[in-house]
Specification:
The complex is a heterodimer of chains A (357) and B (304).
Chain A (H helix, E strand, L loop, with lengths): L20 H13 L3 H38 L11 E7 L3 H9 L4 E2 L4 E5 L6 H10 L3 E6 L5 H11 L2 H11 L4 H5 L3 H6 L4 H19 L1 H15 L2 H6 L2 H28 L2 H26 L9 H12 L10 H22 L8
Antiparallel strand pairs in A: 1-3, 1-4, 2-3
Helix pairs in contact in A: 1-9, 2-6, 2-10, 5-12, 6-9, 6-12, 6-13, 9-10, 9-12, 10-12, 12-13, 12-14, 12-15, 14-15
Chain B lengths: L1 E10 L2 E11 L3 E5 L6 H8 L7 E6 L2 E2 L4 H7 E4 L11 H11 L4 H14 L15 H13 L5 E5 L7 H16 L4 E6 L2 H7 L2 E6 L2 E7 H4 L4 E9 L2 H10 L3 E4 L5 E6 L5 H9 L3 E8 L3 H13 L1
Helix pairs in contact in B: 3-4, 4-5, 9-10
The chains are: A mainly alpha (357), B alpha/beta (304).
Chain lengths: 357, 304
C-alpha cells in the first residue's frame, strides 16, 4: 500500500475573486457565534414575540370564522368582530344600489356612507365587492383590505428591537473585533489578501445576520402570513409599502446598532468594556433623555437616546404619530452621524499594525 | 524577490526606516539587526501595513503601496507576536485563512491537513489553538503563512520562544521550504545562528538604515582568511607594512588586530611585516570570520 506523502506540496488551484472575501468572515463568525449556549437561548427567546404576533393574526382571522358561524346560528352578524375579513369601501355617488346588491348576496354591511364596512365570508375577496359594484353601476373611490394595519408591524418591530435585540447586540457584537485585537489576530487577517473594509464588512455581516433574523425576517414572514390568510391580492397592492418600511426600519436599526457596538469593540479592545459601553448607550441614554425631557419639558433632549431616535424614525416610516415633539429628520440625522462616526472609528482602529505616535 | 529604494517609514516624528535601499534575490535572506533596528517595521512596510513617507518598494514585482493585495496574495507572513483566534481548532483556523485567501473550501480544508502534517502538528490538528504550547503556536503561525502556497515567506522571529529541539526543527523546516520547495524566505531575527543556518544572503539593519548587505559567504570572508595578531613593538609601523602588502586589518580586542589574508596565501607576509617593522609576534591565531563578528562590527561602526 503506498504511503501518503505528507511533505509540502504546492497547490495547483485557482483563487476565487476578491469580491466576496468578506463573506468568509461572516460565515465563520455566524458559525462561531452559534456555539455559544447563551446565543442559542436568545435565539429561542427571540422567536416568542414572533409566535405571539403570528397567533394574534391567526386568531383575528379565525374570529371572523367564529363570528360567521355565530351569525348563521343567531341570524345576526356582529360586523365589528370580523376584523380579519372586514373591507372598508368608500363609494362615490348614490350607494343605495350597491348596498342593496350586497344585501342580495347575503353580505353583511354597516356604515352610513359614503364609507361602508363590508364583512365577506371566508372564500370572498375584493373581486366579489368590485363585481357587485360593477353590476350595480357604483363607482368605488377607495377600498381597504381587511387584516392588521401597518401600525401592527411598527409595534411588532418595536417589540423585536427591544430588550432581546439589545442583549443580542451585546452578546454577538462586543467580542467581534475586541477578541481579534486582544489575540493579535488583526495582523494575520490583514496580511492575507483582504482589505480593512472586507474585514469590517465581514464582521458587520455577522451582526446584521442575527439582528435582521429578529427584525426583518419575522416582519416579512408576518406580512406574508397575513397576506396568505387574507387570500386577496388587494392586500399586496394596498400595503405594498409595508415590506419596504419593514426593510428600511430593520436595516436602520440593525446598521446603527451594529456599527455602534463594532466601534466600541474596536476602540476598547476588550469584550467587557465594549459590552458595558453598549449597555450604557442602549439603557443609559434613554434614561438620561427621559429625565432631561421631564425636568425641562423640552423634547429636544430625547434626541440623546438612540432607541428613541429609532422609534421616532420608525413612527415616520410607518405613518404613525410623532414619538416626541421633534421632527423625525433630526433623529435620522443623529443616527446617520452616529453611524458615520462609528465607521470612522473602525477605519482608524482596524489596521494591521497599531501605530503609537 | 524584494527591491527597496529610498524607503523611509515614520511613526509620527520618529523615523523608523531611513532611506533604506537594497535588492535581494533569495531564496533565503536574513534580516538582522538589534532590537529597534527597524526589522519588523520593514516587514510591515513590505506587507503594506505602513505607508512609506518616501521611497518605493516591490515584492515579487508588485508595488508595496499600489498593489498591496497582490503582494499579500503572493506572500505568507509569520508575525512575531502570538496571533490566534480562540475557540478554533487548528484545522478550522487554517481552513478559515485559506478561504480568506480565496481558496475553495474543500481545497482549503485538504491543504490545512497537509500543511499541519508538514509543520508537525498533524496529531494536534483538532485541538483548539489557544491550548497550544509556545512552540506549537510558532508552528501554527508558520502553517497559516503557508496555507495559500505563497511564493515568499516573511518570517518575523520564527524561533521565538522555542526550545532547542523545536528551534532546530523550525530551522529545518525553513531550510526545506527555501531550498527544496522553491519558496523565497525572508527571516527577520536577532539570532545570528538562525540566519547562518538557513540563509545565504543577509541584510543587517541598524537604527533604521542598512548597515551591511551581502552574501553571507562573502561577508564571512570565505575567500579570505582572518588571523588575530598581537605584536610587541611598533604596531603602527607593522600595520603600515601590512597595508603595503595589500592586506586589510581591523582593530580587535586586547590590543589585537585582525588581518585579512587572501585564501591562497599563508602567514609569510605577516611574519615578513613583523620582521621589517622590528616587531615580535606574541599572538597569531587563525580564525574564520563569523557572521556574529560582521554583525557586531557593522552595528558598532554605525554606533560610532
Amino acid at each position: 500500500m503506498p504511503v501518503y506523502d505528507q511533505s509540502y506540496k504546492h497547490w495547483e488551484g485557482t483563487f476565487k475573486s476578491h469580491a466576496f472575501r468578506w463573506w468568509v468572515i461572516t460565515k465563520y463568525g455566524i458559525k462561531t457565534a452559534f456555539k455559544k449556549k447563551s446565543l442559542k437561548l436568545l435565539s429561542m427567546l427571540a422567536v416568542v414575540p414572533f409566535i405571539a404576533f403570528a397567533v394574534y393574526i391567526y386568531g383575528l382571522t379565525n374570529l371572523g370564522k367564529v363570528a360567521f358561524f355565530v351569525s348563521e346560528l343567531g341570524g345576526h352578524t356582529p360586523v365589528a368582530d370580523i376584523a380579519a375579513r372586514e373591507y372598508e369601501v368608500e363609494v362615490q355617488g348614490d350607494a343605495a344600489a350597491f348596498v342593496q346588491g350586497l344585501s342580495d348576496e347575503g353580505i353583511p354591511v354597516s356604515g352610513q356612507g359614503p364609507t361602508y364596512r363590508i364583512a365577506l365570508p371566508d372564500e370572498g375577496n375584493s373581486k366579489l365587492i368590485l363585481g357587485i359594484a360593477r353590476k350595480t353601476g357604483t363607482e368605488i373611490a377607495r377600498i381597504v383590505p381587511p387584516g392588521v394595519k401597518e401600525t401592527f408591524y411598527s409595534q411588532f418591530l418595536r417589540v423585536e428591537s427591544g430588550l432581546l435585540f439589545f442583549i443580542l447586540v451585546l452578546v454577538v457584537g462586543s467580542g467581534l473585533i475586541a477578541k481579534d485585537i486582544k489575540f493579535n489576530a488583526l495582523q494575520i487577517y490583514l496580511a492575507k489578501p483582504i482589505t480593512g473594509t472586507d474585514y469590517v464588512v465581514g464582521k458587520l455581516g455577522v451582526l446584521l445576520f442575527f439582528l435582521l433574523m429578529v427584525t426583518l425576517v419575522p416582519g416579512i414572514i408576518l406580512f406574508l402570513f397575513q397576506a396568505i390568510l387574507i387570500g386577496d391580492s388587494l392586500y399586496f397592492r394596498h400595503y405594498w409599502w409595508v415590506p419596504a418600511a419593514i426593510f428600511g426600519y430593520s436595516l436602520l436599526v440593525a446598521f446603527s446598532a451594529s456599527s455602534m457596538i463594532l466601534a466600541l469593540s474596536a476602540l476598547s479592545g476588550n469584550v467587557r468594556n465594549a459590552a458595558a459601553g453598549g449597555a450604557a448607550v442602549f439603557w443609559f441614554t434613554p434614561m438620561v433623555g427621559r429625565i432631561l425631557q421631564q425636568s425641562t419639558r423640552n423634547d429636544n433632549y430625547m434626541l440623546v437616546s438612540l432607541p428613541d431616535n429609532w422609534t421616532s424614525v420608525g413612527s415616520a416610516i410607518f405613518g404613525r404619530e410623532r414619538w416626541f415633539d421633534v421632527p423625525w429628520g433630526w433623529s435620522l440625522l443623529i443616527l446617520m452621524t452616529v453611524m458615520l462616526l462609528c465607521t470612522a472609528a473602525l477605519v482608524r482602529r482596524v489596521r494591521g499594525v497599531e501605530v503609537v505616535k | 524577490m524584494i527591491e527597496i529604494e529610498g524607503l523611509t517609514v515614520q511613526y509620527g516624528a520618529r523615523v523608523a526606516l531611513d532611506d533604506v535601499s537594497f535588492s535581494v534575490k533569495g531564496p533565503a535572506v536574513g534580516l538582522l539587526g538589534p532590537n529597534g533596528a527597524g526589522k519588523t517595521t520593514l516587514i510591515r512596510g513590505l506587507l503594506g501595513f505602513l505607508k512609506p513617507a518616501r521611497g518605493r518598494g516591490t515584492v515579487l514585482g508588485n508595488s508595496i503601496v499600489a498593489e498591496r493585495l497582490k503582494v499579500r496574495q503572493l506572500v505568507g507572513y509569520l508575525p512575531e507576536d502570538d496571533c490566534l483566534i480562540p475557540d478554533m481548532s487548528a484545522v478550522r483556523f487554517l481552513t478559515y485563512f485559506g478561504e480568506l485567501c480565496g481558496m475553495p473550501k474543500t481545497d482549503a480544508t485538504q491543504r490545512a491537513h497537509e500543511v499541519l502534517h508538514y509543520v508537525g502538528l498533524g496529531e494536534a490538528r483538532y485541538r483548539n489553538v489557544e491550548t497550544f504550547s509556545a512552540g506549537m503556536k510558532q508552528r501554527i503561525k508558520l502553517a497559516q503563512a503557508l496555507i495559500h502556497d505563497p511564493k515568499l515567506l516573511l518570517l518575523d522571529e520564527p524561533t521565538n520562544g522555542m526550545d532547542p529541539a523545536g528551534r532546530e526543527e523550525m530551522l529545518r523546516l525553513i531550510g526545506d521550504i527555501s531550498r527544496e520547495k522553491g519558496i523565497g524566505v525572508l527571516v527577520s531575527t536577532h539570532l545570528l545562528p538562525d540566519v547562518e543556518a538557513v540563509c545565504d544572503e543577509v541584510v543587517v539593519l541598524n537604527k533604521g538604515t542598512v548597515a551591511v548587505h551581502g552574501k553571507i559567504a562573502e561577508l564571512q570572508g570565505e575567500n579570505r582568511k582572518v588571523y588575530e595578531v598581537r605584536v610587541q613593538g611598533n604596531r603602527n609601523r607593522f600595520c603600515e607594512i601590512l597595508v603595503r602588502h595589500g592586506y586589510e586589518w581591523k582593530e580587535w580586542k586586547d590590543n589585537m588586530i585582525k588581518v585579512l589574508v587572501p585564501e591562497n596565501e599563508g602567514t609569510a607576509k605577516i611574519f615578513a611585516a613583523a620582521k621589517e617593522s622590528d616587531n615580535q609576534i606574541r599572538h597569531l591565531v587563525f580564525e574564520k570570520s563569523s557572521l556574529e563578528q560582521v554583525f557586531v562590527e557593522s552595528v558598532k561602526d554605525r554606533k560610532e
